[in-house]
Amino acid sequence: MPNKIYFTPGPAQLFYTFEEHLKKALFLDIPSISHRSKTFIKVVEETNEALKELLELPNGYDIFFLNSANEAWDRIIQNLVINTSHHFANGSFSKKFYDFAIDHNKKSAITESSAGNPFQSMKVSEEAELIGITKNETSVGYTFTEDEIAQLRKENPDKLIALDIVSASPSLPVDFSQVDTAYFSVQKGFGMPPGLGIWITNEKCLEKAEEKAKTTSLGSYRALPNLKKFGAKNQTPETPNMLFIYILGKIAQDIIKAGATRMRNDTTYKATLLNQAIENHPLLDHFVSSQKHRSKTTVVAKTSETEKILKFFESRGLVLGTGYGSFKENHIRIANFPTHSKESVEMVCDLMKKIE
Ligand SMILES: N[C@H](C(=O)O)[C@H](O)COP(=O)(O)O
Ligand SMILES: O=C(O)CCC(=O)C(=O)O
């Protein structure tokens, strides 16, 4: 067993049942059976059902398997945007989605706020077909509130809304009826190795893709109508990452069995402890000043002592995250995912007091 605990915001600490499910998957020959076999079709069905239950997806939303959230950015632009999208960005990953749209030659617009700061305006350009928002900006620990998502929905009933839930899922409750598409990758809150992305879409997305397909290519095997065609049979167009699809379903079932509400309450409790530890520490300060926008799943503090703090923890077997990008040396990021026990977070907070 590994002797370190990773509080890095992805890849992160593996889910505590990951190893057990990996062994069982090998015992069941999951990586060797045909992905068109009845056995694997059942695996896909069970994973879809567990995710729908855990995320509380309303009816009419489909789940598709990709490789990463980066791929979801590409697929969303390819399938759901003909001319232009509008992006809210205040960190590296929300900005990247906009950059992808520009790479695809879209005339996209951006509402940009300096890193970790709230948006001054929620106005969306008239022509935008899709709005890109990030529930939890991993790079700086900024959360888009449910009220803000609901406001965007109300003011833009006819546009598609795409929600990045990469480091939010499954810890933060999301009202999916307010958005049309959402995506995440499994190396964050689900505690798995990287390499599997989940793309959630509703009927409006499919209609948009079909409209776009009349005049433009949507790409090939992972065009949304093709994903839908295979998905209807609990299959995928390609040979997918069968091992991870199996394990993801099992981890989702584990969280449901232990209580999804309890996991979400624990997330709040652990975030509160971490935030108090930051407030009480002379070397640390919150990076996101607006309290309601502070991430519960990626707690970020600014400090001039990143290296010293990370070394202190690493020598005790606890790996905290550095800052991201230009903040590498003056932030620390502490992931608070379902696999991080209350005891392990309490240990981080206790140890933090010892750093002077
Ligand atoms: N760390 C990013 C984020 O938090 O958004 C990430 O690059 C996106 O996920 P993938 O690397 O799995 O594409
Ligand atoms: O540190 C992180 O937030 C993840 C890093 C990452 O995914 C990336 O740099 O692409």
UniProtKB/TrEMBL annotation:
<dbReference type="GO" id="GO:0008615">
    <property type="term" value="P:pyridoxine biosynthetic process"/>
</dbReference>
<dbReference type="GO" id="GO:0006564">
    <property type="term" value="P:L-serine biosynthetic process"/>
</dbReference>
<dbReference type="InterPro" id="IPR015421">
    <property type="entry name" value="PyrdxlP-dep_Trfase_major"/>
</dbReference>
<dbReference type="GO" id="GO:0008453">
    <property type="term" value="F:alanine-glyoxylate transaminase activity"/>
</dbReference>
<comment type="similarity">
    <text>Belongs to the class-V pyridoxal-phosphate-dependent aminotransferase family. SerC subfamily.</text>
</comment>
<dbReference type="InterPro" id="IPR022278">
    <property type="entry name" value="Pser_aminoTfrase"/>
</dbReference>
<keyword id="KW-0808">Transferase</keyword>
<keyword id="KW-0963">Cytoplasm</keyword>
<keyword id="KW-0718">Serine biosynthesis</keyword>
<keyword id="KW-0663">Pyridoxal phosphate</keyword>
<keyword id="KW-0032">Aminotransferase</keyword>
<keyword id="KW-0028">Amino-acid biosynthesis</keyword>
<comment type="pathway">
    <text>Amino-acid biosynthesis; L-serine biosynthesis; L-serine from 3-phospho-D-glycerate: step 2/3.</text>
</comment>
<feature type="domain" description="Aminotransferase class V">
    <location>
        <begin position="31"/>
        <end position="323"/>
    </location>
</feature>
<dbReference type="InterPro" id="IPR000192">
    <property type="entry name" value="Aminotrans_V_dom"/>
</dbReference>
<dbReference type="GO" id="GO:0019265">
    <property type="term" value="P:glycine biosynthetic process, by transamination of glyoxylate"/>
</dbReference>
<dbReference type="GO" id="GO:0004648">
    <property type="term" value="F:O-phospho-L-serine:2-oxoglutarate aminotransferase activity"/>
</dbReference>
<protein>
    <recommendedName>
        <fullName>phosphoserine transaminase</fullName>
        <ecNumber>2.6.1.52</ecNumber>
    </recommendedName>
</protein>
<dbReference type="InterPro" id="IPR015422">
    <property type="entry name" value="PyrdxlP-dep_Trfase_small"/>
</dbReference>
<keyword id="KW-0664">Pyridoxine biosynthesis</keyword>
<dbReference type="Pfam" id="PF00266">
    <property type="entry name" value="Aminotran_5"/>
</dbReference>
<dbReference type="InterPro" id="IPR015424">
    <property type="entry name" value="PyrdxlP-dep_Trfase"/>
</dbReference>
<dbReference type="GO" id="GO:0004760">
    <property type="term" value="F:L-serine-pyruvate transaminase activity"/>
</dbReference>
